[in-house]
What we know:
The structure holds four protein chains of four kinds. By secondary structure, chain A is of the alpha+beta class. Chain A has one domain (5-224): Alpha-Beta Plaits (2-Layer Sandwich), CATH 3.30.70.20. Chain A has helices at residues 19-28, 35-39, 106-110, 152-164, 177-181, 198-203, and strands at residues 5-10, 48-54, 61-67, 86-88, 94-96, 116-118, 145-147, 187-191, 208-209, 221-224. The model of chain A has no long low-confidence stretch (mean pLDDT 94). Chain D has one domain (25-429): Formate dehydrogenase/DMSO reductase fold. Helix content of chain D is 72%, strand content 0%. In chain D, helix 2 (22-48) packs antiparallel against helix 15 and helix 5 packs antiparallel against helix 6 (144-164). Chains B and D meet through loops of B and helix 12 of D.
Amino acid sequence: xxxxxxxxxxxxxxxxxxxxxxxxxxxxxxxxxxxxxxxxxxxxxxxxxxxxxxxxxxxxxxxxxxxxxxxxxxxxxxxxxxxxxxxxxxxxxxxxxxxxxxxxxxxxxxxxxxxxxxxxxxxxxxxxxxxxxxxxxxxxxxxxxxxxxxxxxxxxxxxxxxxxxxxxxxxxxxxxxxxxxxxxxxxxxxxxxxxxxxxxxxxxxxxxxxxxxxxxxxxxxxxxxxxxx
Amino acid sequence: xxxxxxxxxxxxxxxxxxxxxxxxxxxxxxxxxxxxxxxxxxxxxxxxxxxxxxxxxxxxxxxxxxxxxxxxxxxxxxxxxxxxxxxxxxxxxxxxxxxxxxxxxxxxxxxxxxxxxxxxxxxxxxxxxxxxxxxxxxxxxxxxxxxxxxxxxxxxxxxxxxxxxxxxxxxxxxxxxxxxxxxxxxxxxxxxxxxxxxxxxxxxxxxxxxxxxxxxxxxxxxxxxxxxxxxxxxxxxxxxxxxxxxxxxxxxxxxxxxxxxxxxxxxxxxxxxxxxxxxxxxxxxxxxxxxxxxxxxxxxxxxxxxxxxxxxxxxxxxxxxxxxxxxxxxxxxxxxxxxxxxxxxxxxxxxxxxxxxxxxxxxxxxxxxxxxxxxxxxxxxxxxxxxxxxxxxxxxxxxxxxxxxxxxxxxxxxxxxxxxxxxxxxxxxxxxxxxxxxxxxxxxxxxxxxxxxxxxxxxxxxxxxxxxxxxxxxxxxxxxxxxxxxxxxxxxxxxxxxxxxxxxxxxxxxxxxxxxxxxxxxxxxxxxxxxxxxxxxxxxxxxxxxxxxxxxxxxxxxxxxxxxxxxxxxxxxxxxxxxxxxxxxxxxxxxxxxxxxxxxxxxxxxxxxxxxxxxxxxxxxxxxxxxxxxxxxxxxxxxxxxxxxxxxxxxxxxxxxxxxxxxxxxxxxxxxxxxxxxxxxxxxxxxxxxxxxxxxxxxxxxxxxxxxxxxxxxxxxxxxxxxxxx
Amino acid sequence: xxxxxxxxxxxxxxxxxxxxxxxxxxxxxxxxxxxxxxxxxxxxxxxxxxxxxxxxxxxxxxxxxxxxxxxxxxxxxxxxxxxxxxxxxxxxxxxxxxxxxxxxxxxxxxxxxxxxxxxxxxxxxxxxxxxxxxxxxxxxxxxxxxxxxxxxxxxxxxxxxxxxxxxxx
Amino acid sequence: xxxxxxxxxxxxxxxxxxxxxxxxxxxxxxxxxxxxxxxxxxxxxxxxxxxxxxxxxxxxxxxxxxxxxxxxxxxxxxxxxxxxxxxxxxxxxxxxxxxxxxxxxxxxxxxxxxxxxxxxxxxxxxxxxxxxxxxxxxxxxxxxxxxxxxxxxxxxxxxxxxxxxxxxxxxxxxxxxxxxxxxxxxxxxxxxxxxxxxxxxxxxxxxxxxxxxxxxxxxxxxxxxxxxxxxxxxxxxxxxxxxxxxxxxxxxxxxxxxxxxxxxxxxxxxxxxxxxxxxxxxxxxxxxxxxxxxxxxxxxxxxxxxxxxxxxxxxxxxxxxxxxxxxxxxxxxxxxxxxxxxxxxxxxxxxxxxxxxxxxxxxxxxxxxxxxxxxxxxxxxxxxxxxxxxxxxxxxxxxxxxxxxxxxxxxxxxxxxxxxxxxxxxxxxxxxxxxxxxxxxxxxxxxxxxx
Lengths: 229, 726, 169, 451
């Protein structure tokens, strides 16, 4: 059976520290756009920590919610792409082929989660910042759409290692950068087709829910609620 | 097409093919022969230590090959090197346990920063203008040696001043040794936001002059007093990991978390219950809880803890009797009912632990607060108990001496100043006039990697390696239940013409006319040396190897006193609460673009500085998100954009520290305002630490939004429709 | 090309001239009437009315439909790429392509039929007189038999109003 | 028909083609330079990066797509209206059809340019075209953008042919009436048209079929443009009403554009005798009807969203009606409903001037309508944390303005090269059918034999 990669986000563990955001930048060669571009709403964060205030002082609470590509099974972003740049892999990933992308940005409009980002300019890494770029991840040129890949390069690397050693992938062997960096272990990644994997167990938790579930996008990211105290 | 490609293209078409190859400087770069074995595309992992905060997380650096532009023998060229690509937590490190915070991960950009100083610099223009010329290492070292020799020749060794980063590391020992053996005063290592009060209180309460470690993973109840322990305080990565376990790590058990503070931190946002209190009264609440546990109806705790509970209140004059729930309500503003309920929960849900840190310990009555929370921990029976408070053993390296009340006074008479990894101009209250003092020192040498607010005044810059290019060593003060120390070799070869500061110092020491002999021969030996030199004359180190010091009584018996504030309440109606930015800490990582562009967890702000105020306050002042306001304290005025922030009391305004550097690379220079400049230098009397939360300000609307506040969630301020009639 | 023709101002004269030509034994198909606007009300203008063009348009539409069906389902199967949980050959969207291709087929078939049957553009110069533009109506015979020229001329002259021209190109 | 009348028609309508004043050159120069500026801006945008626009996360579509929908809407003026009028054989259509069809062709060309301008990598736009590429990949027929490609392609081909076919006889006329280079040019363009009865028959049959074919195509085009939006699960986009709503809006704006074009032609080319007030009266009534229909659709759409109270939809609704987009929204309502309703429903005001005023406001209003469909929904999608805003940047404004200039320039050049009123069709319309003649015809022996 092919793998079906999914993630669980435990909102009870998440502290909004932002480590995942930086880890994602470091792993995936996400450009820093600078202040003037950020002011225009072009900051790129494949994963972001949303926060929502509730109530009024002094009875005020705040909720964090890390949002990355939900890797929907019925992804609204995929069919609208005229060039198949956005499509579904047989491991259930919502893949983006940068070379095929012509920049209609339709996928980003169709995405209800707003997790797709556009390269408005050619990305810049003043030397020698470019030495940090991860050679396993392509740098996107101007005019293409980019998004969270569940660190597909890590998935592939682990799969190749396992194949070379003639063994099955172990649960927890693959960790996308955000999952790896999360010290509170709020993010758990794994194979949803393996009922014994940690992510499968968490996804079945009664604390679990999907983001914008009623849209029918069948996300593969499960959010585990913080219990009401 | 990339701009460069276009230029290349025009160059080719514009000139003849033969000349074209000379037309583009890129073509002139020579490819040097690599100096190390390189396996293209294969990653290796090497350990190192995160330099960003004092937690000392061990990191794992992913090393792969990359092309680096460099200069060899005066020839510019490209060389293929094994370089660090990414930093992750080192899984076997008891502190980071494989995780790493945003600042730690961004630390890799220190090494590759485009504005990093690549070779020794000598001041060229007027002081403070930042005009330097590149010089060679021999010249640079000779210059420093000659200045030190001149001091020695005039028998004026006391006029050497060294400013260092307040770190428990071998590096600070080296500086101290150098100063001592040269004959100068000990290095100044001052941390404005340091935890001296808590260390002193821990020495008094528990016999450990050390920051505590919390076994949150096993706690069932956690009450925090102002400590942003999931964000910036103490050892955040370790605390996050433990916190995650406390919440969901045990089947069927979920630890409850209550946070007491006056401005919601990211930590407070994670709490089940957030209890705002009047600034500076947190200790009263803690003692109120102690009172209820000792005397109140909640006295249900096991007998074993009873004795320690009796002890707990001992340091307090008159015990905890006067802190009845009603009195607590009067002082703190927390309803008596709520106090009683918390006490009940504390009694029921064991193990329970209390944490204090941050703003509550930045008031004039900080020692009282720290001791009160320590008393609460004792009353809870949580000291050295599973799910309680511990002290990391083996923190063998001593910390810097507690700072005197005005740490930089000696700069006024200094003739030669050495600055190592510190930025006192930025991190000192205005009233200390550190900038003026530094500007008047005849000779300043800095080991900085960047031209910052302080090193811009340097006459000589001898750039250090980045941490990835250095021998590193850490021995954690806290964050781990077991001893944690790391020594690691350089992850990569230096990419610039820099030198390890310890080796520069050792070389300088050796080249002096009256050579100073240091007990290490190079950086490797320094990092690896197990013991501090026996000749150290600093205060004794605290560690578990040593017989634990018995609790010492405080100099004066602590009793709640209303905190004193700088500025008259009528004239300056708001409390000013500066807080450590989760991205920049005290500002030392403001130059890293990833951190600048990381949306702040609470406000979603990027590339900005701002002041937070309660919606009511904002309405009263007719201020909307992004509007500029003038904050005025007795120390001066700052103009900053406002952020409307529901999690703050109406009489408090809070501002993150970290921006407002005059000089700190292209990414941080001239960006925002420096909150430290408003802080009045009033001190906690016991330790002399600056009570940085004890300043009052007035707030006035100054101008409409001018775009300097950049929010990721910019349009969230249009409230969702549920609040409106359609 | 040789042509014999006459120009008339009144369509009644044209009708008479056409009738005359028919009487002179000229085949209906060889009689050409040229006007600067379509004329509906006379018998001569109702010759050559019958056409298959509607059916050909329909046929073009059918070809377009077939092409559209083939293009969509073939290409979707040629490299099957799943998107959004939709079937590889997704009929709802494909119907749109098929519809557009159908209409395009019909339109192109119509125009091609028009061009071929109406001989536009003509490969060789044809009988024409610029005076037609001014409202004159031309009646003539292209490439008449040498023997019939005089009969044609007589027939054209019989309405008695027109200028008679014989041109040789 | 009266030869003198035919002569006059030909002369009047040919005059703009054969006589050229300095005003024409000045107009061409001004419009041409604006268009050149627009093109230059586009290349500058391609060179510097798409970031020169005001587009951002989450408002990934804005001015360019607004223009796209707007121009495609305008294109419904011509072919659709002329096809309907042809089919119902409305006599008053004759002077209107060509100037209407030209609008279609040019508006489509301009409209179809916008999806290319708005691409992140416009140099790769041909990847939308189904051709056996070396990449072995075909377009994704599930994507509404590919539907757009097919629909616009069919519509443009159809409209172009629909415009060109009836031009051939007029080219022949110009060929006969002119000398010099014009004669040579129009000789080529006339394709050796003779005007035989057979040719006339075939031309009219073909036009009949085209008229039938082009109507569903036109409807499909704007339906598919609406599908670009309604296929996406975006608040207020994901609506079943969108296809007819867009088609209505398209025809609405199209008629307004036609009225403006006709009024301009009438004034500039002195065609008062051919474009009568009754034409404007009739088109004005049509415009009024479309205005009411449009209002009805807007009401139905808004009411459903408002009453349904689905949070994200209501949010987008509120932000348009009473939030930051409210000024634009209410301007739109005034322009598209209040002004046309007042002017066009009162017979006294339904003059040429009245129609022109109403049409102008309708064009403004319909542009705003498209903008208000595209932007507020995108800026207020489901997760409030990612709500955004949009302000146009200079490149977008310049390119937008230049496309209006391009429309005028193309129209001006077209009117210079081709008689803007179909001369032969007009002549047919003027042809008196005498009752006696018809009776006489029916008595004709051959008619009896072969009716």
